[in-house]
Amino acid sequence: MAKKLGRLGERICLLCAAVFCAVIVLQSARAAADGLTAVVALGALCAAAVLALAVRFWPFGDRGTILALFLLRFALAMGVILLIGAQPIQDFNTMYLAAQDMARGSRDYLGDVYFYNWAYQTGFSFYESLLLRIFGPGQLPLQVANALWMGGIGALVYAIALRLMPRRAAVGVSVLFAVYPAPYFLAAVLTNQHIAAFLFYLAVWLLVRREELTPARAALAGVVIALGNVMRPIGVVLVLAALCWRGVRLLLGREENWRRALACLALLLVGYEAVFALCSGAVARSGLNPEGLTNNQPMWKFVLGLNQESSGAWNREDYEAYLCLPPEQADPAMREVVKERLQAGPVELAKLALRKSQVMWGADEYMYWGFGHLDPQRKLGPLTVDQYTRVLARGDKGVYLLAFVLALLGAAALLRRGTEGGPALLAAFLLCGYYAVHLMVEVQSRYRYFLMPAVFLLAGIGLAALAER
């Protein structure tokens, strides 16, 4: 009975992953036809060429590959930082100004209601303040750190891929991920996504590094996820994915000692909860933020995500109607409007889900974060800045579309043959969980960042399946 439940859980996860990938491929293909289609096709062809060359001619062993991928991503990120730069805007500017206050020993930033509503952002601002204290004022130290985290993510993708697929496929998909353009659009942006993604995928590597999960690695993975959650509060998605994965393994009988397996799950959860609680308490006791690392407006993302008119994206009407209220009035008002929007009925909510998927996963990358400080009408040779960014976004779409086509093939291959609870199932659970969460909460293309390494890992499995056939 347990094995039947395990197989059912595995098949449901893989089927959902395949369906989600198929929806994204169809929506992305529709968006690809929206002008400059030749550039999209060229981007896909260039990505396929990079993939083929890497699989056939990559010259390095495993250690050399890890170092080469780190240096490649670091160099590309630094090139974007030094050539294009960026200016912090919106939330990123608020956190950067707070980091400057912290570095000076000031608490003036606490006068901004932002750090009451979103107290959890204090963790990232504190991290930025540490770099400012060590390396001095200015954005460059923070941007160089971004490049280092990006290089680390590239190395981790390869280290994880080696556990999921044959080496040649691991090399090919890791090199393809290293040249995937979208992350570099954010290289100079003072976003918490870079460090958080590094920590989350470091935890994934700890979880899949060996066939058997030891209590020490389980606890350490929980600690690392908690630190990632301090930077960006989406760690619960990874925790739930890991618990589901190990639970399926347990049901499938892949764990020789079920008591030890349950202890590992408990240690993962305890490590995550305990370390995050300690960090939140330390923030409150130190005076960095009396609210700790809490979210005092938990309904806000759902208010946005359930807005039919904006298709789940940020909009000024909701901002002025709810977030501009006094904090003690905002939460009950938002809870009421969430209840109201959930009563739209299953058909309207399903239509909203498809539109949100198009906004989040089907549309081009939103270039404003990394290029908004440039004059869009400035001429650089034959094109304006705005036209260059459009070409970049279209070329990126080709690489993105190829990755999801291969990920769809990977999910289908896993569905056909099963995973027996292997580490590939964790990548599938991550995809399903993250996609499903964003059917409810606010969406924007920038939020893809966290999931894309997992997508490329599934793409590597698809590549290996193609090679087998």
Q: In a nutshell, what does this entry contain?
A:
With 469 residues, this protein is mainly α. The chain has one domain.
What is the fold's blueprint, element by element?
Layout: H1 2-32, H2 37-57, H3 62-83, H4 90-103, H5 114-117, H6 122-135, H7 140-161, H8 167-179, H9 182-185, H10 193-208, H11 215-231, H12 235-251, H13 258-286, H14 300-305, H15 316-323, H16 327-342, H17 346-362, H18 368-371, E1 379-380, E2 383-384, H19 385-417, H20 424-437, H21 452-468
Helix pairs in contact: 1-12, 1-17, 1-19, 1-20, 2-8, 2-19, 3-7, 3-8, 4-6, 7-8, 7-10, 7-21, 8-21, 10-11, 11-12, 11-13, 12-13, 12-20, 19-21, 20-21
3D architecture notes:
The protein has one domain (2-468). 72% of the residues lie in helices and 1% in strands. It contains 21 helices and 2 strands. A hairpin with a 2-residue loop joins strand 1 and strand 2. The protein is globular.
Features:
single chain; about 475 residues; about 70% helix; mainly alpha
Chain-averaged pLDDT: 94
Fraction of residues in helix: over 70%
Order of helices and strands: HHHHHHHHHHHHHHHHHHEEHHH
* Number of continuous helical runs: 21
Low-confidence runs of at least 5 consecutive residues: none
* CA distance, first residue to last residue: 34 Å
Major sheet strand order: 1-2
How much β-strand is present in the residues? under 5%
Q: How can the largest sheet be summarized? A: 2 strands, antiparallel
What is the C-alpha radius of gyration, as a whole number of Å? 22 Å
Number of strands: 2
Secondary structural class: mainly alpha
What characteristic shape results from the CA principal axes? globular
Number of domains: 1
